[in-house]
Amino acid sequence: MVDRFISEFGSLEKDDFRTLRGVEEGMKTRDWVPVGDVSIFSGLPVDEVEYRLSRLGGLDLVVRRSMDQVRFRLDFGGYDVLALNVLVSRGVVDSLGGELGVGKEAEVRSALMGGSEVVLKFHREGKVNFRGIRRSRDYLGDREHFSKLYIAKLAAEREYRFLKRLYGEARVPEPYSWNRHLIAMEKLKGNELSRVTLENDPEFVLDLILDEVEKTFKLGVVHGDLSEYNIIIAEDELKIIDWPQAVETDHQLATKYLKRDIKNVVKYFKKKYKIDRNPEEIFKSIVNQK
Ligand SMILES: Nc1ncnc2c1ncn2[C@@H]1O[C@H](COP(=O)(O)OP(=O)(O)OP(=O)(O)O)[C@@H](O)[C@H]1O
Ligand SMILES: [Mg+2]
């Protein structure tokens, strides 16, 4: 999906971005933004905004609806180019590469900066099951109005914050920059644990993972979605990715998440490598050592 919007990126002008930001600003208080509001928030005259909006609509960067009056909103396409524009202007990325993973919660792709690889993670939380998220995610606070874009932005912010906090102490990719729902981070070598078969000493790898769980717990963080899909293994390195749902150890869900993280990993190594470990004992030893 990013491909389509990114291909338009080069053709966008300064006033297109101003218009997109005007729609974004209007969406802080309503789902659909009238043209007059876009004009006020962007600082552009109404006729210029009308021209820009119809152009951006043609590129699928804004969505138009005729209600009592014509109104607009941003979708992920427009949000993607706004975020990307900021990272380009910060000098974090200068060209885009291929796709690394597309799923429900994120679109991950490689990019280049001065010849070296960077990973761009476009968060997509809120795209599916918006209502479920609305009910369950405590990070929305008591704000009354929010769009799915806002939910994705909060998820990216959280992930970036946890990566920043852990990087240098735990085995996580280095976070470079963050804007809106987009994070730029280190491109890791290797593959998801689920896709490799550990030929020698899988037990050593299991211990490495459990050491990481313990270390991050000591640093005050629980991952909350640990599994063979969020562990990246290279020949000489292991990293844990995908941190937006992480919680502090004093969070009400921390115990539940920690137990589940340990269980997921232990279960996977039992099934695939016939290694028998007791998740309950591991949990106790981690919690008691803190
Ligand atoms: N820093 C990175 N370096 C290399 N590959 C990465 C990196 N981050 C993510 N990936 C790849 O992209 C995939 C998805 O990333 P991640 O797990 O962070 O997102 P997700 O929320 O699980 O997304 P989805 O719902 O699409 O699975 C990963 O499983 C991995 O293959
Ligand atoms: Mg993942």
TrEMBL record:
<dbReference type="InterPro" id="IPR015285">
    <property type="entry name" value="RIO2_wHTH_N"/>
</dbReference>
<dbReference type="InterPro" id="IPR018934">
    <property type="entry name" value="RIO_dom"/>
</dbReference>
<keyword id="KW-0547">Nucleotide-binding</keyword>
<comment type="similarity">
    <text>Belongs to the protein kinase superfamily. RIO-type Ser/Thr kinase family.</text>
</comment>
<dbReference type="InterPro" id="IPR011009">
    <property type="entry name" value="Kinase-like_dom_sf"/>
</dbReference>
<dbReference type="GO" id="GO:0005524">
    <property type="term" value="F:ATP binding"/>
</dbReference>
<dbReference type="GO" id="GO:0004674">
    <property type="term" value="F:protein serine/threonine kinase activity"/>
</dbReference>
<dbReference type="GO" id="GO:0005829">
    <property type="term" value="C:cytosol"/>
</dbReference>
<dbReference type="Pfam" id="PF09202">
    <property type="entry name" value="Rio2_N"/>
</dbReference>
<dbReference type="InterPro" id="IPR030484">
    <property type="entry name" value="Rio2"/>
</dbReference>
<keyword id="KW-0460">Magnesium</keyword>
<dbReference type="GO" id="GO:0046872">
    <property type="term" value="F:metal ion binding"/>
</dbReference>
<keyword id="KW-0808">Transferase</keyword>
<dbReference type="InterPro" id="IPR036388">
    <property type="entry name" value="WH-like_DNA-bd_sf"/>
</dbReference>
<keyword id="KW-0479">Metal-binding</keyword>
<keyword id="KW-0067">ATP-binding</keyword>
<protein>
    <recommendedName>
        <fullName>non-specific serine/threonine protein kinase</fullName>
        <ecNumber>2.7.11.1</ecNumber>
    </recommendedName>
</protein>
<dbReference type="InterPro" id="IPR036390">
    <property type="entry name" value="WH_DNA-bd_sf"/>
</dbReference>
<feature type="domain" description="RIO kinase">
    <location>
        <begin position="60"/>
        <end position="288"/>
    </location>
</feature>
<dbReference type="InterPro" id="IPR000687">
    <property type="entry name" value="RIO_kinase"/>
</dbReference>
<keyword id="KW-0723">Serine/threonine-protein kinase</keyword>
<keyword id="KW-0418">Kinase</keyword>
<dbReference type="InterPro" id="IPR018935">
    <property type="entry name" value="RIO_kinase_CS"/>
</dbReference>
<dbReference type="Pfam" id="PF01163">
    <property type="entry name" value="RIO1"/>
</dbReference>
<dbReference type="GO" id="GO:0030490">
    <property type="term" value="P:maturation of SSU-rRNA"/>
</dbReference>
<dbReference type="GO" id="GO:0030688">
    <property type="term" value="C:preribosome, small subunit precursor"/>
</dbReference>
